[in-house]
């Protein structure tokens, strides 16, 4: 059987057809970037305290009715009937009355929310504070559980019914239910819609990623899987704080996030189905028809017969291998670290908009480093090195004195850099290890396992109540363990994408370790290279990082 890339080599790698597919698929990822982390602003809690209704109080008692616990108490006030009586008697708080002796009560009249940063969030809309505060992180978890479900089922649907229908179907799901969230009448309704929105959120990303990997070839495929889709996501992520800054209300922000989805409807007529997938289903004529259209776009002559002696592989074999188990562990680790750091950016800057932008901006050099790694370094070595860089930087956070807060921020950003680079690298690595008949299912299954990590991420910061650096230690430990597990994966650098299950198993059987000394030396050298690259980046931004 002739290899697919050899069969379509006459098209070239960067003709008009490939350019259209490349840029349209990359642009389709933008809504994932600003939609995926919108919960950072939607669920943020404005400053608040108990609402005091209009009653006849003196100015002194109006100022003193809310207890001070370092700052104004968020969940209690002095009993209003007692305060009203004391005010009527002309007593002065703090002079005639000892405030510590007064009885307190909950916020029975609701809360008053500051509008300094936000006009409204779902926290102020549905009073998700005090006893209901647990719903703030749980909203993110519900959304990410939807992402988990979407990752698992969309991969199987895509391998059964095609990349294109699932890609556009899940994009529509994401757009429609983001819009429906505007009309939520309660937190429960909002959470249910967020769950369904999450199903579409990652599903169209995975479908677009696999579709581009199967249509594009050679260096262009590497560029797409490392820089293309990942930069599309990062640019969308950087657009989010811009939207949130000018649209301070949660409903207007959701509207701005959902409407761009309508712009992608015309893409249906420009983005084709994956010829690789069609061939795996025995639909050779349809695959040839797409390639012939591509030849016309590229203004090249197609041969009379494009695909000769192509085997038909209909049906979905079961996904079982040690490779899958190891990849699931690595995906889980990277997702837990990525979302754990992305959802907790408060240390970066007091302004939430700047914090979000900095967290997003660090992804750009991370994705550039992935592109360089995919071009020049073995996949396995790259993944090990980036996991070690991320794990060690998070470990070292506990050693930084409180007086060196800038160094702590820099180390956290190094961890975010590594988790971002590792995630992008793992997408490309996973796609290269699996055959066409399983590629979307494998990517979706690994992505589903990663969403278990991302679903736990909103609660990871709660471990800091026991020990301040415990969340970082957990993430760092998992990163180091995963780095050693990657030693048992096969290498895919310089090899064509496998078309059949047999080709995949042959790679696993032929897997041979590099000599241990050589592997460790190469890993150490690449790790030092990455650290030096990150150090240079932060020095340019004004951080002094010791290396």
TrEMBL record:
Localization, UniProt: Membrane
> Topology in the membrane?
Multi-pass membrane protein
The record, for PROSITE patterns, names: MFS (PS50850), SUGAR_TRANSPORT_1 (PS00216)
Protein name listed in UniProt: Major facilitator superfamily (MFS) profile domain-containing protein
- Give the record's GO CC terms: membrane
State the taxonomy lineage: Eukaryota, Metazoa, Chordata, Craniata, Vertebrata
Q: Give the species.
A: Cyclopterus lumpus
Which Pfam families does the entry mention?
Answer: Sugar_tr
Q: What sequence ranges are listed for the domain Major facilitator superfamily (MFS) profile?
A: 82-494
Answer whether the UniProt record assigns the keyword Transmembrane to this protein. yes
Q: Please give the Gene Ontology molecular function terms for this protein.
A: transmembrane transporter activity
Where would you find the membrane-spanning parts of this chain? 20-42, 138-154, 223-246, 253-271, 323-341, 353-374, 380-397, 469-489, 519-546
Q: Looking at the keywords, is Transcription present?
A: no
Q: Which UniProt keywords apply?
A: Membrane, Transmembrane, Transmembrane helix
User: Which InterPro entries does this chain map to?
Assistant: MFS_dom, MFS_sugar_transport-like, MFS_trans_sf, Sugar_transporter_CS
Main location per the UniProt record: membrane
């Amino acid at each position: 059987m002739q290899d697919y890339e050899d069969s379509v080599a006459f098209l070239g790698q960067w003709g008009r057809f490939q350019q259209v597919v490349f840029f349209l698929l990359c642009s389709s990822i933008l809504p994932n970037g600003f939609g995926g982390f919108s919960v950072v602003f939607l669920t943020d809690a404005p400053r608040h305290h108990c609402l005091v209704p209009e009653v006849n109080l003196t100015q002194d008692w109006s100022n003193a009715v809310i207890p001070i616990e370092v700052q104004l108490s968020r969940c209690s006030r002095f009993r209003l009937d007692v305060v009203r009586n004391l005010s009527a008697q002309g007593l002065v708080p703090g002079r005639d009355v000892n405030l510590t002796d007064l009885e307190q009560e909950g916020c029975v009249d609701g809360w008053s929310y500051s509008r300094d940063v936000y006009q409204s969030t779902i926290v102020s809309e549905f009073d998700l504070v005090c006893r209901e505060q647990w719903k703030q992180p749980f909203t993110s978890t519900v959304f990410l559980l939807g992402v988990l479900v979407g990752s698992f089922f969309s991969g199987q649907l895509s391998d059964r019914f095609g990349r294109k229908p699932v890609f556009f179907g899940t994009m529509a799901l994401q757009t429609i239910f983001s819009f429906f969230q505007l009309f939520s009448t309660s937190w429960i309704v909002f959470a249910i819609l967020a769950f369904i929105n999450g199903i579409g959120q990652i599903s169209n990303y995975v479908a677009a990623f696999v579709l581009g990997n199967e249509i594009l070839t050679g260096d262009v495929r590497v560029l797409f899987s490392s820089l293309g889709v990942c930069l599309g996501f990062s640019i969308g992520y950087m657009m989010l704080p811009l939207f949130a800054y000018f649209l301070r209300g949660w409903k207007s922000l959701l509207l701005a996030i959902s409407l761009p989805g309508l712009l992608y409807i015309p893409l249906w007529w420009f983005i084709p189905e994956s010829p690789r997938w069609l061939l795996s289903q025995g639909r050779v004529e349809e695959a040839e028809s797409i390639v012939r259209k591509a030849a016309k776009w590229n203004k090249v002559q197609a041969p009379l017969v494009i695909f000769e002696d192509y085997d038909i592989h209909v049906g979905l074999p079961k996904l079982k291998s040690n490779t899958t188990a190891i990849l699931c562990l690595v995906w889980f680790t990277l997702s837990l670290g990525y979302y754990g750091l992305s959802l907790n950016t408060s240390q970066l800057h007091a302004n939430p908009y700047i914090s979000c932008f900095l967290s997003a901006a660090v992804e750009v050099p991370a994705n550039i480093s992935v592109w360089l790694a995919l071009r020049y370094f073995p996949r396995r070595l790259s993944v090990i090195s980036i996991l070690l860089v991320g794990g060690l930087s998070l470990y070292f956070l506990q050693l930084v004195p409180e007086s060196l807060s800038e160094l702590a921020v820099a180390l956290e950003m190094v961890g975010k850099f590594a988790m971002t680079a590792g995630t992008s690298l793992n997408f490309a690595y996973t796609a290269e290890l699996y055959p066409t008949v399983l590629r979307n299912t494998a990517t979706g299954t690994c992505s589903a396992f990663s969403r278990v990590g991302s679903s736990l991420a909103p609660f990871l910061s709660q471990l800091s109540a026991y020990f301040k650096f415990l969340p970082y230690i957990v993430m760092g430990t998992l990163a180091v363990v995963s780095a050693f597990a990657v030693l048992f994966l096969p290498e895919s650098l310089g090899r064509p994408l496998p078309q059949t299950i047999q080709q995949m198993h042959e790679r696993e059987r032929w897997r041979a370790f590099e000599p241990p000394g050589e592997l460790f030396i190469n890993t150490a050298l690449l790790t030092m290279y990455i650290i030096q690259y990150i150090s240079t980046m932060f020095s340019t931004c004004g951080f002094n990082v010791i290396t």
